[in-house]
């Protein structure tokens, strides 16, 4: 039977297919339906499930269940990228056969960290293939000369956008690591739609997954982001891959933060910290100290706080500013803190402390572009807002952490022992925290203060709080 061509309308947001054009997709997006041509292969053209062996020949797959006790764990097969912070976010290194999707704003450093990792892996392992559909081989070479200490012989560059050609190169080279920059520029000859469309992204993603799983190659895929900072294109690509990394930061500042939004081989709470320098991305080992370098403890509205990210505590600076509103509705603006969380904290301050914030604009910022998860920073935000509103400062060398409930009570937070040890290491003299946390830290405080006395440092004091209304006695 001859093959017949037909067309469907595909939503560029969710990937939904419809035989007719619709103004609004079922996902709610408007004017996202694009006509794409598909090939109807007919009943006689059935696709076999095949795999590619070591010799490059196709062989049939026989599905057979295996006992879980007989399956070897992949923990020992991780590949060291040579970048400690990247290994931390990935869960200990690259897993063979995994697909990693990395996204970020233009110029944030995605290509820089990838070429550094590729150079390290090529220097210590097998061949590495860097495929770019946006830059020429000469442009990539110029960046490699700038950010890599040495250029290994096993690092190969390929400027290509056709997936069939990339597949053939991988079959011949058999790389130990594959990089695709970026998925929006790749296309398959089997489809007539433009690169970056839903059909092309899905087809290219499936082909890369086949390459990675069959040949046991870890694959790094670079993806574009929209103006809102989200991944461009359909969400289907995020469901295909094993790990989704997000590279964030302000291009006017040196600090870059790498976070895992999805990770099948590790936690999603780890973050990696980098500093953009002339010679590339440099790891920041003491991120807490870097974020607190310019903090003025005698400034109104500035409070130090801490969160626990993955396997390490992180000390941050919270800044708040209140000013009389000149318009009908007061503004509530926050960077690093969810607006809904900020509104709840302000409501508690108004109800439990009698603050009149109805005609006050409130601005809250976490210095360094960090967006911590959890409720560790609630108390610090409340202290910073009250300090700015009253025009008074917090007692010096103080760190605050704790969750605020709707009743005004302070709730205990996890991993407080490790946070206290980090605060003592950074030289803080006072820590404000919920009563329940303070009760659990009595034995720990004894050993911490003995060590500080031996080093000639002042004793670290815990200030336990039960209710948010006790903030008044902490402001001088």
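Sequence proposed for the structure above (476 residues):
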């Amino acid at each position: 039977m001859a093959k017949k061509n037909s067309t469907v309308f595909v939503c560029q947001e969710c990937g939904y297919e419809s035989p007719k054009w619709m103004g609004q997709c079922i996902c709610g997006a408007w004017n996202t339906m694009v006509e794409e041509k598909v090939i109807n292969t007919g009943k006689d053209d059935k696709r076999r499930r095949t795999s590619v062996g070591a010799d490059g020949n196709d062989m049939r797959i026989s599905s057979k269940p295996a006992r879980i006790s007989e399956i070897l764990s992949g923990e020992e097969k991780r590949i060291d990228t040579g970048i400690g912070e990247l290994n931390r976010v990935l869960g200990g290194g690259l897993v063979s056969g995994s697909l990693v999707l990395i996204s970020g704003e233009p110029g944030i450093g995605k290509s820089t960290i990838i070429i550094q990792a590729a150079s390290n892996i090529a220097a210590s392992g097998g061949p590495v293939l860097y495929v770019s559909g946006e830059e020429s081989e000469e442009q990539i070479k110029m960046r490699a000369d700038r950010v890599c200490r040495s250029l290994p012989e096993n690092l190969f560059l390929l400027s290509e956008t056709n997936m069939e050609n990339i597949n053939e190169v991988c079959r011949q080279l058999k790389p130990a690591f594959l990089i695709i920059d970026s998925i929006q520029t790749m296309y398959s000859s089997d489809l007539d739609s433009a690169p970056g469309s839903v059909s092309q992204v899905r087809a290219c993603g499936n082909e890369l997954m086949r390459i990675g799983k069959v040949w046991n190659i870890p694959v790094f895929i670079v993806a574009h982001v929209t103006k809102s900072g989200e991944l461009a294109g359909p969400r289907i690509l995020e469901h295909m891959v094993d790990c989704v990394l997000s590279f964030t930061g302000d291009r006017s500042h040196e600090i870059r933060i790498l976070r895992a939004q999805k990770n099948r081989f590790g936690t999603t709470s780890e973050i990696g910290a980098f500093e953009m320098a002339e010679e590339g991305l440099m790891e920041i080992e003491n991120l807490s100290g870097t974020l607190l370098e310019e903090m003025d403890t005698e400034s109104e509205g500035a409070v130090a706080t801490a969160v626990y990210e993955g396997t390490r505590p992180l000390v941050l600076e919270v800044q708040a500013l209140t000013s009389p509103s000149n318009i009908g509705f007061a503004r509530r603006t926050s960077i690093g803190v969810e607006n809904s969380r900020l509104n709840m904290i302000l409501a508690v301050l108004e109800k439990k402390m009698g603050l009149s914030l109805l005609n006050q604009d409130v601005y809250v910022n976490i210095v360094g572009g960090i967006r911590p998860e959890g409720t560790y920073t609630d108390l610090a935000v409340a202290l910073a807002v009250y300090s700015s509103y009253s025009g008074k400062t917090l007692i010096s060398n103080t760190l605050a952490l704790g969750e605020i409930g709707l009743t005004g009570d302070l709730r205990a937070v996890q991993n407080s022992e490790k946070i206290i040890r980090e605060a003592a290491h950074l030289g803080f003299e006072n820590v404000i925290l919920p009563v329940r946390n303070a009760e659990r830290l009595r034995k720990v405080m004894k050993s911490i203060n003995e060590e500080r006395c031996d080093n000639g440092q002042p004793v670290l004091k815990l200030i336990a709080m039960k209710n948010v209304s006790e903030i008044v006695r902490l402001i001088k």
